[in-house]
Design a protein that fits this description.
- The radius of gyration is 25 Å and the shape is globular.
- It has helices at residues 9-37, 51-63, 69-87, 91-104, 107-124, 126-136, 158-168, 171-181, 185-202, 204-214, 232-243, 277-282, 289-308, 317-326, 353-361, and strands at residues 46-47, 220-222, 224-226, 230-231, 340-341, 343-346, 349-352.
- It has three domains: 4-37; 47-136, no CATH class; 153-388.
- The relative contact order is 0.14.
- The chain has a three-stranded antiparallel β-sheet. Strands 1-5 form a two-stranded antiparallel sheet.
- The chain is mainly α and 393 residues long.
Length: 393
Amino acid sequence: MKFSFLRKKWFKIPYTILLYGFAAYGFILTVTYFAVKFNWTNENGSIDANNRYFAEMHNKYNQSFKVDSVSMVRHRFEVLNRIMLVNEFYPKNADYIFSVYNENKDEKLALRMLDAVDLQLLKKNKAYRKAVSKWKHKQQKTSQKATGLSVFEWMNIAEWQDFKQAVTKDKKYIDSVYHVTGVEPRLIITCLVGEQIRLFNSSRESYKRYIGPLKMLALENHLSYGVTGIKNGTAIMIERYLKEQNSPFYPGEKYEALLDFDSITNYTTKANDTLNVRLQRLVQWENHYYSYLYTALFLREIKTQWEKAGYPIDDRPEILASLFNLGFQRSVPKSDPAVGGSVYKIKDMEYTFGSVAYEFYYSGELADVFPYKKKSFDEPRTVITPSSLKTRE
């Protein structure tokens, strides 16, 4: 009988395994396609427990912060006294704040940095709370021993030290993005920190392979891409809003050509050879320029939207970072924006994306490499037009 071998066990078993294997692979591809198409992978997010405090601090300095000569002298003495007080407990944080203040002479910024420290210490450190009370009555004595650690506990882990070395290597790319977008490098890093820090726990293999031994940032290449975790759909919208002049996100003509595709550069590597050119630009082992460029342009587009709506958030890094994490669809301008985003654990403690952003931005960490600018959003120093578009490596 023809094809009688089809009934043989030696043929049926391998054939059945291959048949079901291909079916399972097809099912996985289908589920992945619909997950991306219908935004099943989008972050749900959560409002941070300290959201009211963040709002109160914003209102405190936005509405009632006096800048007359008498008030500025009082602010200056408050800054110096509070720095000395923090120095009794956490000299490291006091040194960061003093260095930034000594460089900028900006009392408002220094006080906000000190408030970020108070958010932690007033809750958990009775001795500090007591010392603050005494300071308010001109008594500044305390018996608490100082520590060489940071008040922000997640900055005391070994991974943070490795991360700082890794991101310092990218300074030239981040500064290049600042020149063409005007977005403060420290604000860009604020978004990077939130994305990379959560990988310390969720992608330990990435840390062991890249961040730890090589001092390189973890590179994502599935659903989210690059070192800042840009989703494909988000990248497409960032590009679209650069051209869509009627959009509330449209930042202006000077930014239109920044993400134009050129036909000169080959972005293909072993890590991205199955991806389209858009994602290939994001997934580069060493050159993370486009990760930072897409991030900066997202921030500028969000900033533009809120500004046009009458609710500027230029000086709210924690809100900008929360929205970066949540995406365009969650950006709804209003008077009381919430800090939050993804919730993840660092050494068994829970944080939101936005709270990590707030703590890093005002911590003073890496201020020697990525200093505070007078403005978080400035005019670009270099304007790129389609006719002048060149390879930006």
